[in-house]
Amino acid sequence: MENKIRLRRRFYLPYVVLFSINFGFFLCAFFLEKPSELLDGLLKIVTSSSILVTDYIAVGGVGSALLNVSLVGFVSILILMLSGVKPNGATIMALWLTAGFSFFGKNLFNMLPLTIGVWLFSKYKREPFVNYSLAALLVATLTPVVSEIGFLGTFPRIIEISVGILFGFVIGFIFPSISAHTVRIHGGYNLYNMGFAGGLIAVIFSTVLRSFRISIEPADIWSSGNNLVLAVILYSVSVILVCVGFFAGGFKKSISGFRKILTHSGRLVTDYYFLYENSVFINMGVLCAFATTVVLLMGAQLNGVAIAGIFTMTGFACFGKHLRNVVPVIAGAIISAYLNEWEFTSPSKVAAILFSAALAPISGHYGWIWGAVAGFLHVNVAMFVSEMNSGLNLYNNGFAAGFVAMFMLPLLSTFKKDKDKLES
Amino acid sequence: MKLEFEKKMKMASDLLSFCHLYGATDYHLDIKRIDSANVFEVKASPVTISDESLEKLRKYLSAPRQREMEQDFWELMGNSEEYSEMMLIGMMCDHAEAQIEGDELTIVLKREI
Q: B29 exposed, middle or buried (CB, 10 Å; 0-12, 13-18, 19+)?
């Protein structure tokens, strides 16, 4: 079985780029805060409940959050390299998504037990860990479970931490089986499939806890007032990515590849990195800048949650998203956010708008009007589904997007004709 | 390998679905075990496919074997009436060929178990 899987522990360009950006975050952290403040902030981050919504920038400060992002990023890249995973659209996406959610919800304490659980599952199945490397990173959608139990504050700390880690192992062990099956429920039109799988597990877990009168109170910790420094960081990342695309791919080839990316529907599985190689960096840079600009134009705050949305958009620029299929969905989401009863610039609204791009394939495949409808519906659904899982599922918008896709697809496939045969 | 039969059936379904989308009405499908591999051979006619689309098909099917993608996404195959999953099939195979002679499209895939 392993004869085709060669463990080539090489530094591929996508890993080098993300490693370098993480190293930049690492240096930024020490530029912004003193080492003692960083460690203090990191300790607060690691010992927080991490339940939705716990913005690590508010918990530990910008510097400590950046330090957390870089540490999680280094370990995630190391896991892929040691597993011998060559970069593809999905793995690049997973690394960026992990980086984004390290601003709110993921840290090494709550992530590693879940990853080890997936590793144990691969041993149980007697298959190489590389087969489960994507799940091993994206299982971190359920990191709040580990932290919530680990720092419950009811029992002796050592017992709580041990039980939290044990739950991490168990969830990591069952996660790959569930995520492999949920993908067919939404037919690949919800890009955040792991969020949908995580949502199902979190709902089951949450209802069991509630049945035993253990209540989990969602957190509401947001940061504000950091727009300038975070905008500089995010636009710098955008520029770096575009430059990498041009330098590594060549100007003409990159532009040509970028244009071809725009012709795809983006439905799972569409690996832009395999198809257009380094042109994807242009797409990533463009979407990173686009998402940042959307937040700023809304007059909202750049905080941990917004950055998670922006980095998720950036990562999925290798694996389904591009301006053409994202803009209609985001537009529909913004209209919905403007019209409905909640505050337009509230952080949860901003998150719902940015993460509505999970439904970009609907726009890409069925047209921009239906993409806008999907975005419109998503914002409303997303505002309610987190109550179902008590905030234990970090990729809550993936859970919401799954419901929207499940609702829309039967109707669309019945009343709309397929547009093309072999796309692009 | 567990689920290998289910994966084979979904791959076969999508291959036939692809031929159907390009106008085929007559299909011939062989799935054989040769040593440690499953080998698929599909012949379908009449197929109308442009050179550009044929090149795209070859490109999609030439996607390198990616077992992590197979693990997470194989269930996407075979359940869509209006779409085909050629890139995913490529990621689940070690070798692929596609050619057209007259109006007969032939696709050969080799999948190591």
A: middle
Q: DSSP readout, A201-256?
A: HHHHHHHHHHHTT---PPP-B---S-HHHHHHHHHHHHHHHHHHHHHHH-HHHHHH
Sheet holding B26-34, edge to edge: B26-34, B37-45, B104-112, B95-101
| ipTM for the complex shown | 0.87
By C-alpha distance, which of A219, A192, A224 is closest to A400? Answer: A192
Once rounded to an integer, what is the mean pLDDT over residues A284-292?
A: 97
β-bridge partners, B41:
B30, B108
pLDDT of residue B1: 60
Which chain B residue has the Cα nearest residue A416?
B82
A317: its two tokens: 């620029």
- How many Cα atoms sit within 13 Å of B79 on the Cβ side? 15
Is B70 at the interface with chain A, CB within 8 A?
yes
Residues A235-267: pLDDT tens digits?
999 999 999 999 998 889 999 999 999 999 888
Is A190 an 8 Å CB contact of chain B? no
Characterize the bridge pairing of strands B37-45 and B95-101: unpaired
Rounded to whole angstroms, the Cα distance separating A284 from A306 reads: 16
* CA–CA gap between residue A287 and residue A270 (Å, rounded): 17
Query: Residue A417: what pLDDT?
Result: 61
Given CB atoms, is A252 within the 8 Å cutoff of chain B?
Answer: no
CA of A333 to nearest chain B CA: how many angstroms apart? 27
Instruction: Kindly tell me if the per-residue pLDDT of A421 is higher than 70.
Output: no
Choose among A128, A184, A424: nearest Cβ to B79.
Answer: A184
Nearest CA in chain A to B75: A184
The secondary structure of residue B100, as a DSSP letter, is E
Average pLDDT in chain A: 90
Question: Which position has the token pair 């019945």?
Answer: A414
Q: Is the pLDDT higher at B83 or at A55? A: A55
Whether residue A201 lies within 8 A of chain B, CB to CB, comes out as: no
Q: How far is CA B56 from CA A49, A92, A222, B18, in A?
A: 48, 23, 47, 13
pLDDT 10s digits, A311-356:
999 999 999 999 999 999 999 999 999 998 888 888 889 999 999 9
* H or E stretch at A160: helix A157-182
